Amino acid sequence: MEFRFTPEEDAFRQEVRTFLRQELPSDWLVWNDREESDEARRALGRRLARKLAERGWLTMAWPKEYGGRAASHIEQLIYSEETAYHGAAVGFAFGANLVGPTLMVWSDEEQKRQHLPPIAHAETQWCQGFSEPGSGSDLASLQTRAVRDGDDHIINGQKIWTSEAHYADWMILLARTDPNAPKHKGISYFLVDMKTPGVQVRPLINLMNNHAFNEVFFEDVRVPARNLVGEENRGWYVAATTLDFERSGITRVAWPLRQYEEVVRFVSEELRPSARGGSRGRYESARAKLAELRIEFEAARLLCYRVAWQQSRSIIPNYEASMAKAFSTELVYRFANAALGIFGMAGQLEPGSRWAALQGRIERTYLASVSYTIAGGTSEIQRNIIAQRGLGLPR
């Protein structure tokens, strides 16, 4: 594995940075809970997504015939790292990073022609219908049913924790098509138009009083049989491809690293002994903790770089992606917890308070951090994958 980037790759990184700094407002990273601000941010995000699509960056590593640039996986990693660091990850990224690559592996040409170009042009937004109220970590126990009826499947059931479903045009959905088969072998993978009659989206308000999650109900929803991805009853293997793409991303390292650097600046400027009210003991304690975290951030980056390097060599990462996912998401919690300790009471204040640390972003990160260790497969699930597939340990 090469730990250095080529001059061309470094130049591309600088190109992406320059573009983002020109396109994003100076206060882009500042949280604001006002609804009108949220809609303004979404409008800017949509415009940004289309500009990224015009440059071919949204789907960089895709083949050119599907709207990509046939770029290397390393270039894709650089792009993803920079957009996350600058807070420029857009709602269309889910389709570009997870749905599109999965369809390229498993779909027939008709599905590819129908869905890949709109994803590449930032015209359709996607969501993921996997988890259910009784099926989270044990996803294969899901009970949403899909029954064949002529040229359609009729779907009934419920999904939960569906991010961005209230904005999505399409959903990737897991449903049970053979209730008598072993639980991993009777599941199928569908593409569902969210405007289909019988699909109902209800908001779930999270701990931060934000509407990001939803529960989605399906009542006699007719999905054309041509929207089945891969073979019937073998959807578990298609879903595993999607999850591998989800777990291997650099984004979960890049955006908290930006916050980490802001905390370092605060400690350097406000807590040093020569500053007004600075305490040597508090300053040295914060420095030691931040040094430890910086090492962990670098380790997390390298774990993600390793996954991209494997992909560039046509090696399918599996337990390696789980290593990156588990370490990175748990690092976000450790960082947020440490930052709260450094800022004290100011770190607990919500956005909108004049005394809130980093305009309230630390408080937001801390409240959200535990959920990152759950979404996309819990840390316990990742450790099982690492143990069994990586270390060869028994179940």
What can you see in these coordinates?
The structure is a single chain. This protein is an alpha+beta fold and 395 residues long. The chain is built from eleven helices and eight strands. Helices cover 49% and strands 14% of the residues. The model is unreliable at 31-36 (pLDDT under 50). A four-stranded mixed sheet has the order 1-4-5-8. The chain has a four-stranded antiparallel sheet with strand order 2-3-7-6, with no helix packed on it. It has helices spanning 7-23, 35-54, 73-85, 93-106, 109-120, 235-247, 251-271, 280-312, 319-343, 361-372, 379-390; strands at 126-129, 145-149, 152-159, 170-176, 187-193, 199-205, 211-224, 228-229. Helix 4 (93-106) runs antiparallel to helix 5 and helix 9 (319-343) packs antiparallel against helix 11 (379-390). The protein folds into three domains: 7-90, Acyl-CoA dehydrogenase/oxidase, N-terminal domain (Butyryl-Coa Dehydrogenase, subunit A, domain 1); 127-231, Butyryl-CoA Dehydrogenase, subunit A, domain 2, CATH 2.40.110; 248-390, Up-down Bundle (Butyryl-CoA Dehydrogenase, subunit A, domain 3), CATH 1.20.140. The longest helix is centred in the last third of the chain and has 33 residues, at 280-312.
